[in-house]
């Protein structure tokens, strides 16, 4: 066999090994990313003020122009 034939054979062997490994590694990474994304969605889906229907806590600086607190405003416009 000549040198260029050995180069072609070497490239073919490399391709036959690299493609399946690349696809397998890509699938592992994709599956891991999906699992991590699901975990993040589970953590971020905690209850917020709207889900628990709790008014926000009032503080001293929460009074508006009419003198009502944010909590009173929230309850009135709920």
**β-sheet strand percentage:** under 5%
Q: Which structural class is indicated by helix and strand composition?
A: mainly alpha
Largest sheet: none
Number of strands: 0
Measured as a percent range, the helix fraction is 55-70%
Order of helices and strands: HHH
Biased composition (Acidic residues): 59-69
Keywords: Membrane, Transmembrane, Transmembrane helix
Transmembrane segments: 6-25
Region (Disordered): 39-78
Textual characterization of the structure:
- By secondary structure, this protein is an all-alpha fold.
- It has two domains: 1-46; 49-78, no CATH class.
- It has helices spanning 3-44, 49-52, 70-76.
Summarize the structure.
By secondary structure, the protein is mainly alpha-helical. The chain is 68% helix and 0% strand.
């Amino acid at each position: 066999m000549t040198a260029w034939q050995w180069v072609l054979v070497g490239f073919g062997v490399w391709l036959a090994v690299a493609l399946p490994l690349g696809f397998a590694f890509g699938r592992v990474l994709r599956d891991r990313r999906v699992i991590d994304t699901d975990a993040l969605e589970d953590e971020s889906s905690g209850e917020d003020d709207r889900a628990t229907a709790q008014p926000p806590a009032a503080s001293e600086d929460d009074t508006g122009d009419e003198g009502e607190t944010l909590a009173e405003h929230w309850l009135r416009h709920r």
